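Please review the protein record below. Let me know how this chain folds according to its tokens.
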Amino acid sequence: MLREEKRRVSRIRASASTASSSHHGPSQWLLRPAPPDAGRLLGAGPPEAGALGGPHRGPFLQGAGCQVYDFGDLSFTEVPNDGIYNNLVNYPRSVGSASQILADTLHDAVAAGHSCVTIGGDHSLALGSITGHTRQYPHLCVIWIDAHADINTPLTSASGNLHGQPVSFLLRELQDKVPQLPGFSWIKPCLSQSDIAYIGLRDVDPAEHYILKNHNIQYFSMRDIDRFGIQKVMERTFDHLLGRGHRPIHLSFDIDAFDPALAPATGTPVLGGLTYREGMYISEEIHNTGLLSAMDLVEVNPLLAASEEEVNATAKLAVDVIATCFGQTREGAHSVFDDLPTPSSPDELDSEEEIRL
């Protein structure tokens, strides 16, 4: 869990033992999946596709009072002869293998007492991040911010893309509805329906709608946000997830939850999304719980932007979400200020003037 002391983060090139042996409090580990074939794996663009990548990943969190250890890009071995499996799922061995690496890495990070930010990539990376997180905190809860529910099973998905299915693999209630896939034998359901809440839904497939309703999964669509307001939505989300006691929060934030006018550089934009103020309010309220333990920020894809301006706007929005989740406020992220300086007395000023003369 987060505490208010200054936090530290290291690069992924450092070993976990080295990074954790000298820390005196929680830190953020920035993990950024960057598979060798981005289009086939987790959907991350090339290393430069992120505006969130490179040497400037750290300063925005440092400004929020964090010391950042950037672990760089995770390396995944390309799986040969991977493709469409049984006419159902695209590249399951590749996604399964990469997700397992992410799960192991993230588990090591949170086990060492760090907070963790995972930057993707598409939303299939939540298979790894949430699985790894629950190994350390099996009682955690998930807040899923997205235009889509991502809860199709391999048997209900029209596209076969795993980024539309991760939640179905994680929920115990759907265990008997999900077929065995190559590369997925290590994944075990780790969440119950009461452990997750959705915010921002507005493009839900028929089978997904059935699952949400039939299993009584808490969700707030954009209509609900319009109807109740974002403050009430956050209150109800916390009542649902934290009402019986505090527990770590895993935030999984898809940039397409925002309206495409704000976040155009993404794969599946849907009109009528969150405003900037709603997105920042969500992030502020999650930070204010003091319970955020790990977060994903996914689906920023500069390759899909029409211009550099669209890339920059989407990337800046993602940066703002992450920084706000870790303490940046709309009043400004201020360093500790204990007291105001006191001006010199008139007598002291007169004495100084006489000395100069």
In short: The chain has eleven helices and ten strands.
